[in-house]
């Protein structure tokens, strides 16, 4: 995935403050991180599509989700290379790769080079930034 390495400041948005929980707002708009093993999706195994909690953009497919043991939902890749934008993050004196929703710039989590599969990447996301749209399976008649 290409790294655009850009940074965009977040503005205070009253509509988002009303629509999102305090934790969702803190994570997506202020770049926060939820505590490990505390998020709704860290251990979810349901089929479906993970979307941005802010703008509903499709971000990750459940087929790429895996148990990284870190306490956050982890994925091997985004649904589409253009759905997640990557940025330098130098908070806490460490260079990391921040993942944001390409549609609305919401903070999602970070990407690390220790994942399984061909990409070798681990998209370590905050549950607070995601909403799972469960797959509907037709039942045989």
Fold topology:
Blueprint: H1 14-19, H2 22-30, E1 48-52, E2 58-61, E3 65-66, E4 74-75, E5 84-89, E6 96-101, E7 107-112, E8 122-125, E9 130-134
Antiparallel strand pairs: 1-2, 1-9, 3-4, 4-8, 5-6, 6-7, 7-8
Overview of the molecule:
- The protein is mainly beta.
- It has a single domain (19-134), classed as Metal Binding Protein, Guanine Nucleotide Exchange Factor, Chain A, CATH 2.170.150.
- It is built from 2 helices and 9 strands.
- It has helices spanning 14-19, 22-30, and strands at residues 48-52, 58-61, 65-66, 74-75, 84-89, 96-101, 107-112, 122-125, 130-134.
- The strands form 2 sheets. Strands 3-4-8-7-6-5 form a 6-stranded antiparallel β-sheet. Strands 2-1-9 form a 3-stranded antiparallel β-sheet, with no helix packed on it.
- Strand 6 and strand 7 (107-112) form a beta hairpin.
- The longest helix is centred in the N-terminal third of the chain and has 9 residues, at 22-30.
- The model is unreliable at 1-9 (pLDDT under 50).
* Strand-pairing-aware structural class: mainly beta
Radius of gyration: 15 Å
Number of beta strands? 9
What is the name of the CATH class? Mainly Beta
Spatially, the strands of the biggest sheet line up as 3-4-8-7-6-5
Unreliable stretches covering 5 or more consecutive residues: 1-9
CATH architecture group name:
Beta Complex
Most strands sheet: 6 strands, antiparallel
Helix and strand string, N-terminal first? HHEEEEEEEEE
What is the distance, rounded to the nearest whole angstrom, between the alpha carbons of the first and last residues?
A: 43 Å
Say what the CATH topology is: Metal Binding Protein, Guanine Nucleotide Exchange Factor, Chain A
Determine the mean pLDDT: 89
CATH superfamily: Peptide methionine sulfoxide reductase
In DSSP terms (H or I, runs of 4 or more residues), the helix count works out at 2
Instruction: Give the helix proportion (percent range).
Output: 10-25%
Strand content: 25-35%
């Amino acid at each position: 995935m290409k790294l655009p390495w850009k940074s965009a400041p977040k503005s205070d948005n009253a509509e988002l403050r009303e629509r999102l929980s305090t934790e969702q707002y803190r994570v997506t708009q202020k770049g926060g991180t939820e505590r490990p093993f505390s998020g709704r999706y860290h251990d979810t195994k349901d089929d479906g599509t993970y979307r941005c909690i802010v703008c509903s953009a499709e971000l990750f497919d459940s087929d790429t989700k895996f148990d990284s043991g870190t306490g956050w939902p982890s994925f091997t890749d985004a649904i589409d290379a253009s759905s997640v934008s990557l940025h330098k993050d130098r908070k806490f004196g460490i260079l990391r790769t921040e993942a944001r929703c390409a549609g609305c710039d919401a903070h999602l989590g970070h990407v690390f080079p220790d994942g399984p599969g061909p990409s070798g990447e681990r998209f370590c996301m905050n549950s607070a930034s995601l909403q799972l749209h469960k797959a509907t399976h037709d039942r045989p008649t």
